[in-house]
Amino acid sequence: MNEYTKLNKDPYRIFDLSWAGWVFDFYILILFTFLKTQLQTSLNLSAEILSLCHNLLELDNTISDLIFLFMFLIGFGTGFS
Question: Over the chain, what is the mean pLDDT?
Answer without folding.
Answer: 80
